[in-house]
Amino acid sequence: MNFQLIGVNHNSAPVEVRERLAIPESRLPDALRCFTQHPGVDEGLILCTCNRVELLAQTKNGSADLRGFLGDYFHIEHSELAPHLYEYREHDAIRHLFRVTSSLDSMILGEAQILGQVKEAYATARAVGAIHSQLDLLLTRAFAVAKRVRTETAVGSSAVSVASVAVELAKKIFGSLNGKTVYLVGAGKMSELAARHLLAHGAASIFVANRTYDRAIRLAQKFNGQAIEFSRLYDTCDKGDIVITSTGAPHAIFRREHGELFLSRRKNRPMFFIDIAVPRDVDPEMNKLDGIFVYDIDDLQQAVSSHVADRKKEAEHATAIIESEVERFQARLQTLDVVPTIVSLQDHLETIRQAEIDRVRGRLGVLSPDQELAIDTLTHGIVNKIMHTPITTLKSAARDSEATTVVDIVRRLFNLQEKEKDKKAAQSGGGTGGRA
User: Fold this and answer.
1) Rounded to two decimals, what is the model's pTM?
2) Looking at the structure, do residues 133 and 145 belong to the same domain, yes or no?
3) pLDDT for the residue 160
4) Is the pLDDT of residue 77 over 70?
5) How far is it between the farthest Cα atoms of the chain?
6) Is residue 259 domain-shared with residue 173, that is, in the same domain?
7) How far apart are CA 395 and CA 30, in angstroms?
8) Residue 350 is part of which domain span?
């Protein structure tokens, strides 16, 4: 079990740092290929959301320089990243993944989006061949743990969301949402959810601008709204009282001069920007304009912090579930570690059994089917009794730190190392014969 995880999240790094590590969805497959080619990395997964960027690896020799990969891939000096990074290994990495997938490590405790985001990251990693064995087991278990947490606790019930917080903040700015216009820039799921909440609380109409115009049309139709071609963004954005922006742009698409233009057209009527993009879509300079109110993803975190205490007991219950699941998964992995030795021992003793039967068969003469069955049953019983103690010992040791020592002793006692070498040599065409 050689798991390593490194990353930054909303608690360890401000959005100014996180946006420098953001990987656009289109570049994620290439990033995964680079990651799995990094020295020491056997399998890998990259999780990139507005609140976190995390790299999870199954390493070949128990350790890989994941900090080095981050610095090289993003061209960022180690000294700039180091204060914001967290890194976990083995059971700590398993625990962190279970917490993330179960939404216990989210900015908004209990939010449902993170599970889908982890599943999307997993699907992408599998598609490019970055996940194939132990990480597959780990991610599959993480999804089951998240389901158990949601089933057995109320941590996700009535969960505060970015959408509900957006409504609260908008009400503080405008007093009432009745008759207000919502303008979506980007057609993502979170933007759609926020718009749905705002309309449910009195907002009157909606505009949708997206780089892919067809997606803008489809989303606008859900709300009986109007789709806007992205090229007309700056000509029309001033129509929105509340602008929710979440694009994949690598730099800000709204700058101070845009805010000044919008305010002049609106005759200084206020505008509220909810920027849930990472990297950010709205230049912080916009917030200095009188009449422009900008909240980025970190501002939203502060707005929801008061809600976390309400579900503290449920979070404690969920944490207890995760701790038990970490132990259970570790035990399973350790058991898997001894399986090859058990199989080798079974093969070794079966080979001896068959060889001994063949050796004495000529002296026994012609045997009836009942006699053949009796010999087979007798020899199987002897072999099973011989195997019982070492197999039981191996399975028991798998749960303890002494597993490696016990495995080594069993393999030495039954000469399984040399048997494995002979088997591999035969499979590869070794020996005197070679391959034709």
Assistant:
1) 0.71
2) yes
3) 62
4) yes
5) 110
6) yes
7) 41
8) 330-360+402-430
